[in-house]
């Protein structure tokens, strides 16, 4: 592979979960209603993402794997929106550089689709192929040609757990898309994709836990907060059940965690970590984009407004429950 692709790969592709993130985002961008993520051996042996989106036209299949080949608009608004858009047009090139890739794809305009295989970024073959509408991308033997990176991988079980956690997060951030997750042949998640956050939550957390959540609605200056928070009885012992989304994208933020936990403290609900699925709609100009695009950290320009939006939203949800 080209050195530049390997450098890009180092930035974009850290582990199986980062591959899954890019492939799922592409599927969602392509208008998928249903998508399946399948992994073997924690994603190190195989990752397969199948979608029913628009597909890739035959003459664009190879270009999709070139660096900076993107069919997506790069508007100023896009870039200002949030710092997690990924490196535009780099993901497929980066993934292909460090793995063996098979692509099967068909658009509605064609009866016959395309099958394309690459190894270490080099095209091995391209053929017409019968396939369903949409795209399937198979990524095998991640980092097979970069032993130094391979050494940094955790055990397959840990990589698989990271993929599963990510898919759950993605399913929660796209309630209108039906997600399936299959690990080593076993289906572990299926969301209905009916557009309701409550349905996605139910599927991700399971019935018992979902019942322990209460809805949140918060308004602040330039910020709207909606979603669910856990009642103390079902709080879990870790922050893995805290999901924050800003303008539809999963983020990590100490500020948001602090606002959430402060509301529980106010209600004397302390001890365990609360769980939440909170969607923030924030003005694009409120979000700082000078954060590494492949990471999920987010910075707000007016932290107080965002903090208050979450804090008071959660507080009134908890007060409604204790009243
Ligand atoms: P980006 O998503 O930033 O455009 P990528 O490297 O992730 O860059 O993808 C390159 C291009 O390949 C996309 O712009 C899109 O045109 C095409 N593509 C990738 N995945 C899919 C998919 N699942 N369905 C349809 N088109 C896709
Ligand atoms: Mg992409």
UniProtKB/TrEMBL annotation:
<feature type="domain" description="DNA mismatch repair protein S5">
    <location>
        <begin position="201"/>
        <end position="319"/>
    </location>
</feature>
<comment type="similarity">
    <text>Belongs to the DNA mismatch repair MutL/HexB family.</text>
</comment>
<comment type="function">
    <text>This protein is involved in the repair of mismatches in DNA. It is required for dam-dependent methyl-directed DNA mismatch repair. May act as a 'molecular matchmaker', a protein that promotes the formation of a stable complex between two or more DNA-binding proteins in an ATP-dependent manner without itself being part of a final effector complex.</text>
</comment>
<protein>
    <recommendedName>
        <fullName>DNA mismatch repair protein MutL</fullName>
    </recommendedName>
</protein>
